[in-house]
Amino acid sequence: MPATPTAAELLATVEASPQAVGAHDRAAWVGLFADDGSVEDPVGSRPHIGKAAIERFYDTFIGPNGIAFDIANDVVCGMTVFRDLTIATTMSTGVTLHVPMHLRYDLADIDGVLKIRALRAHWELPGMIGQLLGSGVQGLLAGAKLGPQLIANQGIGGALAFMKGMRSVGAPGKQAAGLLLDAVGRGEAAGAQRVLAPVPRLAWAGDDRMSLADFTVRAKGLRWSKAIAAGRTVTVSVETRDGLGIAELDFTDRGARIEAVRVCVPAR
After folding, report:
1. Number of helices (H) and strands (E), helices first, in the chain?
2. Which residues of the chain are in CATH 3.10.450.50 domains?
3. What does CATH list as the number for 170-264?
4. Largest Cα–Cα distance of the chain, in whole Å?
5. pTM of the entire structure?
6. Neighbours of 251 (CB within 10 A)
7. What whole-number distance in Å separates Cα of residue 190 and Cα of residue 184?
8. pLDDT tens digit string along 88-147?
């Protein structure tokens, strides 16, 4: 493995994940992670850290279901791969849920092998539950099976930790993210300033710690769609002069202001 893995090598490691899920190959999927790797799914819930916890995550949410990945776009930023997609999950009762999602894979070279250090799945748990409850008898049966399954594999504490994914910055966070992205897309730094924390961290592709003025110059002409609020983060699909990508906007503890913006787009 070279000192700096290529984008193709990073993407190949990421693509091995849905391949293992589709084959229901538990060992292969868990083996993609570093020994101290983590899965936060959905973002806002308690992360599953370490191989044993990741195995229990697989047994709870992946093993019993059929999962298909409809991938719209992948983009690489350093050792991170963002994936823009929709996942169709077919549960044991036959009900299928379609969940819009952004996945973030943070990768590491461990002893010459690329491993997933952290997987963060940005999707909206309330929306998924709404789909489940609106799916008639099959959906209700699937929900009735999932509860005991969750407790059996994760324990009461784990089940409660999963339900923390219900909390997010929600519609106000999406609105603030839209205001910021619209403002910088028009080249108006002052408009973006209104929703930013006093000293925000701004990054564009490989450029970290940018000033708001420089960030606005890079973002001129940006257009956005598909905003997802999960935990204290809003992720957004973006179209920029550099290509298609994903913006990640982190909010302060109280969700009042945006404290960090990272736009991942193809490197120039």
Report:
1. 8, 11
2. 7-166, 170-264
3. 3.10.450.50
4. 54
5. 0.93
6. 24
7. 9
8. 999 877 888 999 999 999 999 999 999 999 999 999 999 888 877 777 777 677 666 777
